[in-house]
Specification:
heterodimer; A: alpha/beta; Rossmann fold; 7-stranded parallel sheet; 39% helix; B: mainly beta; Archaeosine Trna-guanine Transglycosylase, Chain: A, domain 4; 4-stranded antiparallel sheet; globular
Chain lengths: 391, 92
């Protein structure tokens, strides 16, 4: 882990660095999702669609989050060009999504299903544009980029006792290394900070940042309390409990190891909002894996480090989601989903530091273009967090 | 001896890495205790007796409160530990 650690990436006009070079096909609304998926499939694997359930019938904060999340993906450094697929009468304004892409220096086009005159014409027009954009991106070469340009999301899902004892502490050591090198780490899942927030708040670089973390955790706890039920049942999940986790406090204490042992908490941001500071940022996301990863990638994470004890396939349309397990049985039974097995820690056959060095090497290889399991398997889950009813 | 992990010297539970049968001894971090009942893999065993209302400690922090008296060597899980957080069921 030398000071000159780096990877081969795609420098973007806005100064950010991409680790993938996708043509992103963004449906503004659920009604245009199928056309968007067909356009993206026509240029696989360069094409990436963002099928989602929103974009209309939403009010207030939900409408805002949907728009901001789609715009964040259009600006994302893992994206080289954008096609927006509109229906024509929806709330999300396709022009604004395209404009977000252009402001970050990417070519962007809009195809409207009503404007083109139906599914077949809109799909054909989108495919023609996609082929042109993909041909343009194929010429782009990777260049050496320093590790300080990395924004790494840390996440756990399908946790069991091995998560807190092995895989999360290994990811935490990698988080420390990334921050030592000048990079950024983002931790989400506020419900899984509940019970460990005092430890993270104590590491805040400024008192106001620690206070903001505590406010967000308290709000999420109050929301759960307002439903009048025991949070147990979803936190920890039934699988977590079978795996030996008893309370949300226990789960959180194990989960926050992912964020490093000595990183300073520099910022607390809203869902899918830009991660701008080196060091540790906490993002206000729910615990649901796909919504959480969707938000952190929207914030600018180019790579996700995802630990799992029980095993889970979650990917993302534009960012590699690296799977790490400390459970030797899961490493075997779900071998096609697992990228890095750190179960040797629990049998004393590998040290935390050796496992962390091995994982950091995988991060740099992945950032340089090596495909990971979720990408090979076509896992590209995407879900925008929603808080309000559909109207 | 059976493999188990105690993370902090402040902890009053250990995590067992293999299924433990009643009567088997578990040792980690200088502590040793004999299981009074079966403990599934990855679950927790009490290193000392924990009385109702006392704090259950793992990772050097509180993970909940004993909801029943727990004897040394007993299985520590949802049947005898209550979370202090997100308990909307208690607020009504």
């Amino acid at each position: 882990m030398t000071r000159d650690a780096g990877f081969l990436g795609y420098p973007r006009a806005d100064g950010r660095i991409g680790v993938r070079n996708h043509v992103l096909v963004v449906p503004t609304v659920i009604c245009s999702a199928v056309v968007a998926e067909r356009i993206a499939a026509s240029i696989a694997p360069a094409g990436a669609a963002l099928p989602h359930l929103a974009g209309c019938g939403q009010i207030g904060p939900d409408m805002h989050v949907t728009h901001e999340t789609l715009a964040a993906y259009a600006r994302h450094p893992n994206v080289g060009a954008v096609i927006v697929v509109a229906l024509g009468c929806e709330q999300v304004v396709g022009q604004q999504i395209a404009e977000a892409a252009r402001q970050s220096g990417k070519p962007a086009h809009i195809v409207s299903i009503q404007g083109e005159g139906g599914t077949l014409r809109a799909t054909a027009r989108g495919i023609a544009i996609a082929r042109e954009l993909a041909a343009g991106l194929a010429d782009a070469g990777r260049v050496y980029c320093p590790a300080s340009s990395l924004v790494v999301s840390v996440k756990c899902g399908g946790s069991d006792y091995t998560s807190g004892l092995a895989s999360n502490p290994v990811v935490g050591r990698v988080a420390d290394t990334v921050v030592d090198l000048g990079g950024s780490i983002v931790l989400g899942e506020i419900a899984e900070i509940m019970g460990a927030e005092h430890l993270l708040a104590a590491r805040a670089s400024q008192p106001a940042v620690g206070a903001r973390l505590l406010r967000v955790v308290n709000r999420v706890e109050a929301e759960a309390m307002a439903l009048g039920v025991d949070i147990r049942g979803t936190q920890p999940s039934p699988g977590n409990i079978r795996g030996g986790l008893t309370t949300i406090e226990e789960k959180s204490l194990g989960a926050t190891h992912k964020a490093g042992e000595r990183t300073r908490l520099e910022d607390v941001v809203a869902y899918a909002a830009p991660i701008t500071k080196p060091g540790l940022t906490v993002m206000d996301t729910p615990g649901l894996d796909v919504e959480s990863v969707t938000g952190m990638v929207g914030g600018g994470a180019q790579v996700v480090l995802f630990t799992t004890g029980l095993g889970t396939p979650t990917g993302n349309p534009i960012a590699p989601v690296i799977k790490i397990t400390g459970n030797a049985r899961t490493a075997q039974t779900m071998a096609d989903n697992i990228d890095v097995d750190v179960s040797g820690i629990l049998t004393d056959t590998e040290t935390f530091d050796d496992a962390a060095q091995r994982l950091f090497a995988v991060v740099l290889e992945t950032a340089s273009g090596a495909p990971i399991a979720a990408e090979r398997l076509g896992h590209r889950e995407f879900a925008i967090h929603r808080r309000n009813p559909t109207i | 001896m059976n493999p188990a992990i105690v993370i902090s010297s402040a902890d009053n539970v250990a995590t067992v890495l293999e299924p433990i049968a009643a009567g088997q001894t578990v040792a980690a971090r200088g502590a040793s205790v004999t299981a009074v009942e079966a403990i599934p893999r990855g679950h927790k065993i009490a290193l000392k007796s924990i009385r109702t209302g006392e704090i259950v400690m793992k990772y050097g922090s509180a993970i909940g409160t004993a909801s029943a008296d727990i004897e040394a060597g007993a299985h520590v899980h949802t049947h005898n530990v209550a979370s202090a957080r997100g308990r909307g069921d208690l607020s009504r």
